Structure prediction request, 479 residues.
Amino acid sequence: MRHCGAMSGHHMDPEEFRAHGHALVDWIAGYLERVEDLPVRSRVAPGAVADRLPASPPEQGEPFADMLRDVDDIVVPGLTHWQSPSFFGYFPANSSGPSVLGELLSAGLGVQGMLWSTSPAATELEMRVLDWLRQLLDLPDRFGWDGAGGAVIADSASSANLCALLAARHRAGGADPSLVVYASEHTHSSVEKAVRIAGLAADQLRLVPADAEHAMRPDQLDRLVREDQAAGRRPCMVAATVGTTSSMAVDPVPVIGQLCSRTGIWLHVDAAMAGAAAVCPELRWIHEGLQRADSYCVDAHKWLFTNFDCTAFFVADRDALTGALSVQPEYLRNAASDAGEVVDYRDWQIPLGRRFRALKLWFVLRHYGAAGLRHHIREHVALAGELADRIRRDDRFELVSSVLNLVCFRHRAGDATSAAILEQLNASGAIFLTHTRLDGRYVLRLSVGQTRTERRHVELAWRLLSAAADAMVADNRER
Prediction:
């Protein structure tokens, strides 16, 4: 029986929602069909979007059709299109049909899954889906629910890194100015931010020198740990990276893990981007030594086609994590929690509230299956390898590194030419790349990992790179 009368007035009734929802899904499908033809990087000037928006909110409600029109006219021109198959910058923030539908369902259900009791399905589905992911990536059993471990969906690897540090600090006895954290000089900046948020001083973070492959040097880590111990400081956590942002370097986790086990230091492994590759058995070398890790994270929203935000965070000792984060106000007490029979995910993260993120990951894993995920990741790795081979054979460019789906290279004429090529390519709108600095040199990065990227898109990137390089040489000659 319909109750539209009770919902009349300002609310959108079910029939209106159905009509507008169909229109919006059609718009999204159309966007994904045409996104390849849009300039990848937004061309608007600073303030251009804001200038087209009213300075004050509307007094009366507006038709949904007007909102959708303004999305086309105002919002889309101000976007850098992360879902373009020619988006090769940073690392991807991927989406896919099943993921979008899962996100829509989550929004429609409107679940606040802070406690098991606030929606048992939200908690238990998340627990099971994360164990599916653990199996797909062949992660150690110690991260499973059968023992002391477990997993949670965080918003990002930044939050996972912070929670790992808080758990490590808790196990070490709490906040203390003598605690020390270690990370490679190429570790993601979120580790430094986590140190700040956790209340540690800047001098409590040690950046460990990297080797020629830009991976952490375990001998230098060992030296720093010994020096700190001799000075009365207490090593707390080592953040190892499997797939650094700059170059996809893989820190030597087996050796680092041995050192951490010997000294009792918490080992956190950040595999935000690269970890997804382990769905392919032949790429599981990236996880060697992981059996000694205390925590681990991987972003499903990067290379597992699940829209942002969705980071899988695994721990070997869930009590250390919940011990660091659990607070028990009376208004959240309930029989199931008090009996210790359930998992309350509010104790696994910084905020109290949480969305039903597991739905979109569940939809993605069921839609693609293990075989589908392996197919696309293998294709991306192969396409990156082919591009690296072309660069290696080309006397205009120098291949700096090629690991999994990330290719790093530079023009042999130097930093200025490399930077000019990047700006020319991105200004064209046809493709989008980003840069980094390795060994003090300006380096271009091309990441092959967007959901819809195919061989023709990588071949187009190479043709544009070649043309830009030739144009630079010709321009320099004229000067």
About this structure: Residues 1-7 have pLDDT under 50 and may be disordered. The radius of gyration is 24 Å.
